[in-house]
Amino acid sequence: MLERTYIEDVSPEDDGEETTIAGHVHELRDLGGILFVIVRDGTGRLQVVAKEDDTPELFETAENLDSEDVIQVTGTLEASDQAPGGVELAPTELTVVSEATDVPSIEISKDVEADLSTRLDERHLDVRKPSTKAVFSLRSKAMQAMTDWFYDNRFEEVDTPELSTAGAEGGADLFPVVYYDKEAYLSQSPQLYKQILVASGFDRLFEVGHAFRAEDFGTSRHVSEIAMFDVELGYIEDHNDVMDVQEESLRHTIRHVAENAQRELEELGVDLDVPEEDFPRITFEEARDILADEYDHVPEDDNDLDTKGERLLGEYFEEQGHPAVFVVGYPDEKFYYRQDVEGDDIASRKFDLLYRGQELSSGGQREHDIERLKAVMREQGVEPENFEFYLDAFRYGVPPHGGYGLGIDRLVQQLAGLDNIKEAILFPRDPDRLEP
Ligand code: ATP
Ligand code: MG
Fold it and tell me: What ligand has the least distance to the C-alpha of 231?
């Protein structure tokens, strides 16, 4: 394994130190007798200054470099006001590790706007761009913070199947797959498995997995294959306990990113606010009232908020210093949500979390009483007989429980300030894209 320094760890204070770096040739500038080679690794860029007079042989090698060659350079770090980042490398050894045999079809070192479709077609080149790489370094840091929070709070990680006979919600947006001599489907959500596991005694669990939605969308916030962060916990009082977990884990994640992904945020030009104050929790009715009173907007579907409604609510609360807001008590919800509870002044114990004007997660308290569960299923035209594998778990004692599913791609989209969710996914899938 090559002993080397990661470029983000180099600073002007290292003046006079000998070091080795490795990476791609990002940019070359020839000043006649002096050659600036900007080297890029996964963490940053460093200027290497080759001088013909000092190191003639090395200078000749450097003169023959091409963009995107992979090189390894050893030399002395020198603080310099003119160098980007205030430090540069005076090389004593330069090795070409691998040559680029072609000229990249998209600009890697210059900030030229390419359209998203071209960028995604050439994703392996696009990811070489520092601003694109920054999205995925930020994503990795966010996911680390998120999972850490759950491990630190006694949650266990589980893995449930992504192939099964029916979707969590039935529905038409399932991808069928040929499964030996049967028809199976790609999972839309681990919902039913999470509940089975809580019934079985996993009373604090989370799962990082993929969910598949065969929706025919044309929006900037939907994709066909979603990375999901799913959570379920038992022994709750009500849905507020679930919102507490969602709120604290998200605040922790945003704070971690703000503190530990400064380089990435700077690269992306994002100023990230940590929502330190309690997230407002408003009812579905209150949300509709705000939309009607403040914006004269009435979402078409009486039982939901639309995209415009979510965006307007986002603006309304962001102006008051709240980038995140819970909307609680959606009417007419899926069978597994606890609803019509005596004493509740809300329609169901289902909530959505809106973050920066976009739905980020859906969750709530689940129904744990098998008879009520079956009754609601029948009311909604869902045959309990088709869900034996799920209902079986409810015959043997189930703690009151709840949870949520959060779209990781949407979270990264918002943290990185991206217009389109696909920019937050390395190899996104949509109705027209199945490769790369
Ligand atoms: P939306 O109403 O925005 O289409 P949904 O209510 O259908 O989303 P849920 O079933 O509640 O989605 O899924 C939980 C979370 O997964 C959502 O809050 C969202 O963050 C994410 N998600 C759902 N569908 C998609 C999708 N097609 N593309 C990207 N993320 C999605
Ligand atoms: Mg939802």
Answer: 1
- CA dist 290 and 305 (Å) reads 12
Q: What is the mean pLDDT of residues 135-160?
A: 98
Q: Please indicate, yes or no, whether residues 256 and 203 belong to a single structural domain of this protein.
A: yes
Domain that holds residue 391: 130-424
Task: Say how many domains are in the chain.
Answer: 2
> What is the reported pLDDT for 218?
82
Q: Given pLDDT bands bounded at 50, 70 and 90, which one contains residue 114? A: confident
Give the residue-averaged pLDDT of 387-405: 96
Please tell me whether residues 237 and 164 are part of one structural domain.
yes
435 found inside a domain: no
CA angle 150, 229, 265 (to 5 degrees): 85
Q: Answer yes or no: do 75 and 158 share one domain.
A: no
Distance of alpha carbon 429 from alpha carbon 188, whole angstroms: 14
Inside any domain, residue 120? no
Looking at the fold, whether 403 and 326 belong to one and the same domain comes out as: yes
Of the residues 169, 226, 355, 404, which should be mutated to test ligand 1's pocket, given the most ligand atoms within 8 Å of the CB? 226
Q: Decide if 122 is inside a domain.
A: no
- Give the per-residue pLDDT at 183: 87
Q: Where are the alpha helices (DSSP H) in 200-332?
A: 239-260, 262-268, 284-295, 307-319
Ligand 1 pocket: which of 187, 213, 305 to mutate (most atoms <8 Å of CB)? 213
Ligand nearest to the Cα of 406, by number: 1
**Atom 21 of ligand 1, residue of closest alpha carbon:** 407
Q: What is the pLDDT of residues 423-432, one digit of tens each?
A: 999 999 999 9
Residues 94 and 150 in one domain: no
Is the domain of 86 the same as that of 142? no
Report the separation in Å between the CA atom of 228 and the middle of ligand 1, taken as the mean of its atom positions.
Answer: 9
The SS3 call for residue 308 is helix
66's tokens: 């091409």
The answer to whether residues 71 and 161 belong to one domain is: no
Look at residue 158 and tell me if it is in a domain.
yes
Q: Whose CA is nearest to atom 24 of ligand 1?
A: 222
Query: Which CATH number goes with the domain that contains 49?
Result: 2.40.50.140
Q: Which ligand 1 atom sits nearest the alpha carbon of residue 421?
A: 29
Question: What's the mean pLDDT in 410-416?
Answer: 98
Computed on alpha carbons and rounded to an integer, the radius of gyration of the chain in Å comes to 26
The dihedral of CA 254, 259, 264, 266: what is its sign?
positive
